[in-house]
Please model this.
Amino acid sequence: MTQNMVEIRWHGRGGQGTKTACLLLADAAFAAGKYVQGFPEYGPERMGAPITAYNRISDAVCTVHSNIYQPDYVVVVDESLLHTVDVTAGLKPEGAIVINSPKAPKALQPLLKGYAGRTYTIDARRISEAHLGGNFPNTPMLAAVVQVSKVLEVERFLADMTESFQHKFSTKPQVIKGNMNCLTESLKEVRAE
Amino acid sequence: MTRKAKDITEQTPWQELTPGGEIYEGGTSMLVNTGEWRSDVVIWVRDKCKQCLLCAPFCPDSSIPVKDGKRDEFDLDHCKGCGICFKVCPFEAIRFEKEVK
Amino acid sequence: MSIRERLSGNEAVAHAMRQINPGVFAAFPITPSTEIPQYFAQYVADGAVDTEYVTVESEHSSMSTCIGAQAAGVRAVTATSSAGMAFMYEMLYVAASSRLPITLACVNRALTGPININNDHSDSMGARDSGWLQLYAENGQEAYDNFLQAMRIAETADVRLPIMICQDGFITSHAVENILLEEDAAVKAFVGDYTPRHTLLQGSAMAVGPYDTVAFCMEHKVQQAEAMKNAKRAILNVSADFEKTFGRKYGFFEAYRMEDAEVALVLIGSTAGTAKACVEGLREKGVKAGLIKLRVFRPFPAKELAAALSHVKAVAVMDKSEGNNGCGGPLYAETAAACYDLAHRPKMIDVVYGVAGRDCEVGDIERVYRHLLRIAETGEVGEKYIHMGVRTSEQEVL
Model:
């Protein structure tokens, strides 16, 4: 693998915006001058079914076009997946996993199949309900993975996301502020214990 | 090769799959635990239920069994937690909340 | 000045189409190419193009629409995949034999059945003998660049053949990656205007695609065969001008670390990028590995490919579609035939991989190179027709 390349694997459920979060991370990394890949694993689209998406972020061009089997970071957008999907498969011990859960990381450890690396949680449901008025866990999870992986500089990330949201929500600008508040709070709410 | 659907997994070698993916029995979707796709769960509140049966035909996954004119407990192995029954119930006899596993 | 962007492969192709502003877009959706007409419909709605956007009821009709439009004297484009391409099959032949340089964006997807929406090359490989030119891409950048070159190649006076610009469904069509786009004015200048010598709207009578009797039909097929030969020169000319204009180099294929290669792959599309990463890893360990990524499959650059492989000890041809002939895939058959006249032929095997979306990672490619090294060392080829990445109850060859 290319040096300095960060590989991220997302686990979510169809309809939770996991692919969108993955593409937004690619957007933000692109704006920061990186080479990026953002792609979902495709199959029949089924609301609620487990889905996977991937990011490669690097200072040099990455030519590999396969799924990611040894990720540096794993993001779990839906806690219930821990019971049915092997989310830590191939995850590097020097990497980390970020899980959407109101629980402390320690409480989830028994579900991680002996994963010995760093574990973080964030209550993405509560944060998104507070700022966006609904359960949209993808925006908090995006901030959480930036915070944990340090793949992007936080100030720059926030500036780029403002721009991204302005573009994405050009027809409904009223939701931009909520999304930005959601990101800023999420950056602070990532728990290591 | 007349292997039944229940005996075929994502580990079965090609030599042991049925030709062209033929399936030799009906109702095999019962074998797929689509209840695992759920993040929110419905809860039947029996004492509020009037057995009007409005919920059952709305369920897109046939997960509200009806027998002798009365509904029974949810089939949570196949309920995907869409919450449509919760929406249509006129008597608040169905709760819909985050599932704790 | 190139513009640094990040786009999916589908967005990149739609962007190229907007810049070219074709006369007619015949639209019928099918996964994974659907986004192309979707993006283009937005350009139409925004007034960014003045293309006639024709929504049709099937792919047979979308290709028929393109045939009519191109014969009437404008550039016609469409996009399709898999069963959509199969449904326009008859009209693909009509487009080619009517010598209409239509441009088709093919987003490669497995051709049913069993029904599957994921990537392989069975759709366009099935149409390989239809008389269309075929260019393939490793990533969104190449799909974009190929699209910008497509019309000039296809419209070349001694070619006049339709052209397919292919990319891997989902793997590149739906992956967002960095890309260099060119400015609208520069693209317009490069692509130029379409000025066919005869059109249905020229003001005097003209017939296109008449019934051909025994006395003439074979002669017309030979004209087509000659045009396919001429296309080689057109492709090189347009590629050279593209490099001069935009700085990115293209040919019939990319020979990657082939100068001193002892073992090599021949393959098409996105997996070439994965294989390049593998080659780099092997080179660090002292293995003389290389690869040839074929860009142009029609016309098939047989002589050039054979020359590029002439010094290699063992070659694996990687087919992303089944040949259904009991002995290998289409790329293998043509590569082996191309090498037949070499004085010293390399040992050659066919590896069918990635069918119906089966993923192929760096480690898979490394197993192929390791197998080639064993062949090169022992001189024993063994099994020549191998399926990689499939569950089997027998001992795996690789």
Remarks:
- Strands of chain B lie at 40-44, 66-67, 70-71, 94-98.
- Chain B has a mean pLDDT of 94.
- DSSP finds two helices and four strands in chain B.
